[in-house]
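We modelled the chain as a single entity of 148 amino acids. Its sequence is:
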Amino acid sequence: MRKIFKEFKDFALRGNVLDLAVGVIIGSAFQNIVKSLTTNIISPILGCFSEVDFSSFSLKIGNLNLTYGAFITDVINFIIMAFIVFLIVKFMNKLANLGKKEAVPVVKEATTKICPHCFSEINIKADRCPFCTSELVIEENESVEQEK
């Protein structure tokens, strides 16, 4: 039993689990702010155009009362929340990349070449192909590179 508690403690105290817990708590508080923004500001403004608050829209079917207006309000909440999270992530990525230099691609020197007779890949310094034993003509620019 102690082993299970120790494993749980190790799991719970790992950095990413604590980060996740903090994120959930902040997200919950942030959700309340977005819900208040939607309910108290955006819905009444949109209600000016339709002269009705979305949350009051409902459909009665017998004893069933479908409050689709509340669903529309929740969809608006979700869209606002997703957009704000998108902006926060984009801002955080800009901050993370602010001090970084762009990577300059490194051009590697060729170490092999293709034999013109048998088309095998051979060392660039070779003057004879080890596969077909053909003598290779070394061009001027190759001999300059070999001297380096």
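As a brief sanity check on the tokenised model: The chain has a mean pLDDT of 78. The first helix runs from residue 2 to 12.
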